[in-house]
Amino acid sequence: MNTVFSTELTAAQQRLLESLPVPLAAVMMQQIARAGRLFPAERRELDYTLQSLALPRPPKVEKAVQMFAALRLSPELGRMDWRSDAAGFVDKMTAELWSTGQIGTFREAAELLVPSVTKAEQCAQVSRPRLVAIVFDKRLSVVGKTPVLFRKLRPYGTFFTHVNDEKGAATFASWLAARTSAHPEPYAHWQISGDIWKEPAAAPVVSLSYNGMFAEREKLLALFNTVRNSAASQGPEGLQKVLQHLSPEQIGMSAISDPVVRTFALDIFTQGSGTQLYATSFVQWTVREALRRAQPESLLAWFTPRCEATSMDWRISHPDREQATDGPGSLIDAEMGAYLSYVNLMRLPDAERASLLVWHEGYGQALLVGTDLPRGVESNSAITLKELLALTT
Amino acid sequence: MGKRIDFNRRAAMRSLNRREFVQGLCGSALATTVSSMLPQRAWARASDRRKVVVVTFGGGARDEETFSPEGQQNIPGLLHELIPQASFFTQVVNQGILGHYVATASLATGSYETFDNFADVSPAHPTVFEYFRKTRRCPATDAWVVAPSNGFNRIGQSSHAQFYGLGATVVLPKRLLARPDGTPAFAGLEHLLIDNYESPIQAPIALAEELPAEQVASMLKLSLADFATHASTLRSPDELSLFIAKRIMREFAPGLLWVTLHDIDVAHSGAFSLYLDGIHRSDTICAELWRTIQSDPEYKDKTNLLILPDFGRDSDLEAGGNGFQHHRTGDALSRTTWMIAMGPDIKQNTIVNRRIESIDLTPSVAALLGCDAPMAHGKLIGELGL
């Protein structure tokens, strides 16, 4: 067969893809095409998946392959060349799987592949237990009496009622710097903020912020508007195609020097929903994606107030208008964001050694989930942030 | 087979949870569990006078934010005002495509429609509006749809040749406040023109098929300026829909009114608090609609109200999703939801645990109105007394 791949494949990869059912081959091709923009953890997962797909396969993987093979695609899709445009093919295939009621089989088959990957990752060296620290900015507040925070997380950790630190930002900066210098691996340490980082983090900390990318977000919104108003606009699917071929530089993201992080930042805005409009959505989604894709050792996330309810249309038509913030709403968003971050952290390899700290810098309430900490317990003793962080190491 | 059993198990677990929540709230001694078909009623006479109002939530709300102990504070109207007077179906499963237009169209046709959710197309199967109008030989003003998004403009009329011209009158309330190109016609009302929460842009729409705003306003005896003034006091597109729905009830008292709410779908923006606000508003609107029905002699004691989300939202624990934000995984939680049914023909304070499908709605609504829905694939819901 004369095949044309848009990405340079090794002969072994090419043979492997040709041996797989088309739905799976297209998905794997899409992953391989992105290989140059993946984090090391993602590369390891991809390599392991490709290895496990080679014959002879583990029983679970073989079952997954058989399930992918059982999917029935339309002749129209069969005529499309998944090799030259894997992303476009997968998009169309997904829509077809939904409309033909086969999406459940696809999902189950994909899930069968995941445990093998996780096992591989568990074998990989995790030098230090992971720690995710989440701060709720003091502007995330309600009028009136002090709210009771972290209800969803309390069953998993210890709740501290008096954790004060006038210089919380400095404390966390020192903590992150110490962890980074102890193990200065690329992409292993992150800081994510809904505002802007006043002090640039020392390399190799990956540093992203919502307000720090204001200009890039505005350019992206302008692009949405251009696509919408273009005569050839094909609605959401047309936009999707445009976004698939968008480069970070086209929305002015060249300030991020690392090409992998640059593409990651673009993905946050083009694949995340609401990340272009709300600081809270940006932080939650970026934490999720950083955990899922980079699997960092340390992650510091700072939830700051989002603007009041708005719409893409309003933002596009009023690019320079500053909006009022919604402190109480942002607090609710951040509470859910912290809970989802915990859920995402627990999905990672070595989760049993991982810790999560959430602290509200205004109310002085904190919750710590850690290996040796009791769950569902409340401590009313005063404790400093530094002491709390020390409990995680 | 194993997959099916697992899905059923998880769906049944959701149902069990809802049942317990509701029983805890209503007082289990009072709630009746219907486990078998009720005897058929003599429909021929009563159904001629019957009216039905259907409310769907475009963008389902999960149990965590509604019927679970921590969620109940968000739905006081449904829990305290409506459910004690209603039959509550704890397990309504949607096996179709989880996009709002295509899913709502499936509810309206009683068949899983398979078109592209963002396409400007009519449902392939006849809608409940067409069955109703054809059987009862009634005008378009007797079947109305109030829909949230431009993308719903074709939901009232299928492409089925046998039902040509028998569709519902569809009102997209926000179109009354917009210019033909969709931009605001009145200042300060942008927040009411949000069209959809799933994509930054909407598919091109053949607005030529739409009733002109002036004509709709004239039918509803509204001046667009007065309408805009009133709209400026409203907080969201769904409140606009409620206003229009009440106006339609007052001016036409249609036999079949279908209102699709959509504020909840702001969840796609990832802002959890806005999603909760949407749930609050939907709850308030449902209670308000029921009160309107009870206070209007044209509707009181002859109207059945059915409320159901089109589907659910993703579970927090589903790795492919992002919790409440989307409905993209196809997991049990995103497919399983509930229904409240109430009115003169429906048992009160009753919990139905049997699994039904969301496409069972149309044949059942048609039957409540004394019609058949012969091309629908859904089944009659016996517990509605059918």
Structural class based on helices, strands and sheet pairing of chain B: alpha/beta
Total count of helical runs of at least 4 residues of chain A: 15
Oligomer: heterodimer
Percent of sequence in beta strands of chain B: 5-15%
Q: Give me the strand/helix succession of chain A.
A: HHHHHHHEEHEEHHHHEHHEEEH
Fold and architecture overview:
The complex is a heterodimer of chains A (393) and B (386). Chain A contains 15 helices and 8 strands. Chain A is of the alpha/beta class and 393 residues long. Chain A has 2 domains: 11-123, no CATH class; 131-390, no CATH class. Chain A has an 8-stranded mixed β-sheet with strand order 4-3-5-1-6-7-2-8, with helices on both faces. In chain A, β6 (355-360) and β7 (366-369) form a beta hairpin. The longest helix of chain A has 21 residues, at 103-123. Chain B has 386 residues and is an alpha/beta fold. In chain B, strands 1, 2, 3, 4, 5, 6, 7, 8, 9 and 10 form a 10-stranded mixed β-sheet that branches. In chain B, α8 runs parallel beside α9 (272-295). At the A-B interface, α6, α7, α9, α10 and α12 of A face α9 of B.
Identify the notable features of this structure and list them briefly.
heterodimer; A: 393 residues; alpha/beta; eight-stranded mixed β-sheet; 48% helix; B: 386 residues; Alkaline Phosphatase, subunit A; ten-stranded mixed β-sheet; 32% helix; disordered N terminus
